[in-house]
Amino acid sequence: MARRVPPGIARWVGVSACVWLGFLPAAAAQQVNPGPAYATRAMLEQQLSEKGSGDAARLIRARLDSGDFRPGDRILLLVQGEQELSDTFAVGMATELTLPQVGVVPLAGVLRAELPARLKQALARYLLAPVVEVRCLIRVGIEGEVTHPGFYAIPPETPVMDAMTVAGGLTRDAKFEDVRVERGGIVIMSGRTLETAVRSGRTFDALNLRAGDRIFIPKKGDLERTVRIIAVILTIPISIYAITQIIK
Q: Are strands 132-144 and 214-217 parallel, antiparallel or unpaired?
């Protein structure tokens, strides 16, 4: 009898397989895949100088100070010619990566865009001119009014709307204009600005999101339903009056 794969593992395997498929052609051709276009430190500093203050500025400042990686993040690493180093590795509790033959690689304060250079520098102590390709996966919550709410392992270059599609899409009761992002139980982004950004195809990286963040789509409230019902009721006398005029 076939054993059922738990949904969480199935999601992880599916995402990992897709990312690895992106690696294979480059490895076969002995070429370096430039990888996803993550925000660089210079780009974030420029954005910070333009925004000055507010929620967006606080997210950028936190990202510049502490880096992108959190314990539990997954990093898919491919080192050409090194099978033992070509695998999926988890970021440890001290925000570090432990690699075979290499040991501990600190990642505190490192941005996603800086990760390939950091790993190549660490590997160069043991390998001659290592050819490295890297992909990141962050675990984020997509909850509320989606068909399959839960936590998903998502590449940060994924548009947020695409991730919602992976979660089954919005339900008919979703109030998407009130979508919000929570971090540690605190709302860090919400409302029309976030809705517009998501609909325009902004990615997790572009919105400065990280592992553990929770995207929540609320349900249309009772007040909204009540207003609709009252509106329907108010139209009934008008309809009756119109019918009586026609009969006359």
A: parallel
